[in-house]
Amino acid sequence: MMPELFSFIKDPFVSMLEASVQLIPGIEKSTVLYFDVNTNAIRCKNIHHKQQPQVNEFVIMDNLLSQKLRKKRFQFQWMRSDQLPFETIEKEQKQLNIFDETANVVLALAFQNEHDSQSDLLFLYLGRNLSSFGLSNSSNTLTTSEKNIIGTLAYNSFKLQLKKNQSDKTTLFYVNRQIKNLQQQNEQLQSEIDQLKRGAHQNMVNLCHSHLQQLSEEYQIHFSLDKSALKKLEHFNGSLEQLKSTLTHAAQMALNMQYGTAQTNIVLKAWDIQFDTFSTVTESPNEPGIQERYQKTYLLLEKLENAARRVINNQDRLTSENVGSACPTPISAPAISDALKNHQKKAIILLNQFPDRWPTLRNEFRPVRNLLLNQQAV
Question: Predicted confidence band at 276 (pLDDT cuts at 50, 70, 90)?
Fold first, then answer.
C-alpha cells in the first residue's frame, strides 16, 4: 500500500461528506455549508451518493438565507429541501421531479465554527421512511421520535469525527514541531562537530607546517605539503609525536630521493606520507634511550597499543583479529601471534623497563597479558 495523506489533513467538511457515504449509505446526497478559514469565505459542497462519489462545489444562490441559517443555534433540525439556499438551481433544472424532491426529508446538523462563531451546516438528504437504515418497512413514515433518534445519533457521530480530526491535527502539529526541533538540534550539533573537526584539522596543519619549518632549518632545504598530503593527513589518528615522526620520515625519504640535485624546495605528496612507518623512536624525557636492537619490538608494541585503543574506542571486542584490522596496514591474528612470539624476550624486557607504557596491551590484550603471565610463571 502506498503512503497517503492523513485523512484529517483534508478540509474537515470534505472528510465529513466522504464519511457520510459509509455512515448512511441509503441517503441520496450530502451537502455542507461552512466558513472556510483558509479562503475567508462561505463555501458550499456536496456529494451524490447514488452516483460516482465525488465532491462538487457550487455557488450559493441565496446569501441572505445562508447567513440566516448559519446564525441559528441548534444541533439538528429536519427541513424541506426547498428551504435551502442552494436548491434554487436544482429545482429549476428538475421541474419534472419537483414532487419527488419536496417529498424528501433533509436532516440539518449544525456545528459551531470557532472562527466566526456561527454554525457550519451538514445537510443529509433522507427519505420519508426508515428503509435507508433497514429498521422498518419502506411504507412506514418516519415518526417524530424516530427522527429525534436519527438526528441525535447522526449529530453525535459527525461531531465525534470533527473533534477527533481536530485532536489528531493538534497532535500532529506538536509531533512535527518536536521533530523539527530535533532536526534543528541535530543540524546545530553537526555544525558544531564540523567546526571542531575543521579546528582540529587546522591545528594539525599548523603543527605540520611548524615541524616542517624546523626540519627545513635543520636540513637547510624548504619542505612543504601539497593538497594531496594534507588530505591524507586528515585521516591520521596517532599521537602528536607519531605525527612528527611520520613527517620526519617523509622529509628524510624525500631528501634522499633528491640527492645529487640542486633542489632547494621539496614538496611532500600523499605517497610520501606513511602512517605505519616511523624513522625514529619516541622517547619520554623520563625514559632512557631505546637501544637499536629493541627498536623494532618497541615499534611493534606502539602499533598494537594504538590499534587496541582504536578497537576500544569503536566499542568492539579486543581480539587479535580486531586489533589487526585496526592497524594502519591491517594484519591477521596469526601474524600478531607470530610477531609477539618472535619478539617475546625483547617485548618482556621493554614491558618491564617501561611499566607506564602500553597500558591497554598489558591490562586488556590477552596475547600480551599471557607474555607477562608466562614470565611470572618462569
Answer: low
Nearest to 17 by CA among 123, 176, 114, 89: 123
The mean per-residue pLDDT over the stretch 298-306 comes to 91
Angle at 330 between CA 326 and CA 331, to 5 degrees: 110
Nine cell digits for residue 177: 514541531
- Prediction pTM value: 0.48
Dump the DSSP string for 84-98.
Answer: STT-HHHHHHTGGGH
Domains in the chain (CATH in brackets) are 7-173 (3.30.450), 289-378 (no CATH)
Q: Is 358 exposed, middle or buried (0-12, 13-18, 19+ CB in 10 A)?
A: buried
Residue with cell string 484529517: 8
Beta carbons of 308 and 318 less than 8 angstroms apart: yes
User: How many other CB atoms are found less than 10 A from the CB of residue 365?
Assistant: 24
For 222-236, how does the pLDDT look when each residue is reduced to its tens digit (9 = 90+)? 999 998 888 888 878
Looking at residue 239, its amino acid is S
Model pLDDT for residues 190-229, shown as the tens digit of each residue:
988 888 878 887 888 898 999 999 999 888 889 999 988 8
In angstroms, the CA 314 to CA 302 distance is 19
The answer to whether 307 and 276 are in contact (CB under 8 A) is no
Query: Residue 143, SS3?
Result: coil
The reported pLDDT for the residue numbered 340 is 92
Q: If you compute the radius of gyration of the chain from its CA atoms, what whole number of angstroms results?
A: 42
Cα separation of 336 and 339, whole Å?
Answer: 5
Phi, psi (degrees; rounded to nearest 5) at 48: -90, 120
The DSSP string of 316-352 is: ----HHHHHHHSSS---HHHHHHHHHHTHHHHHHHHH
Average pLDDT of the segment spanning 239-250: 85
Helices (DSSP H) in 220-294: which residue ranges?
227-233, 240-257
Report the chain's mean pLDDT, rounded to a whole number.
Answer: 81
Q: How many CA atoms lie within 13 Å of 20's alpha carbon, on the beta-carbon side? A: 32
Task: Write the DSSP string, 52-85.
Answer: S---EE---S-HHHHHHHHH---SEEEE-GGGST
Contact 323, 307 (CB under 8 A): yes
Read off the C-alpha cell for 156: 453525535
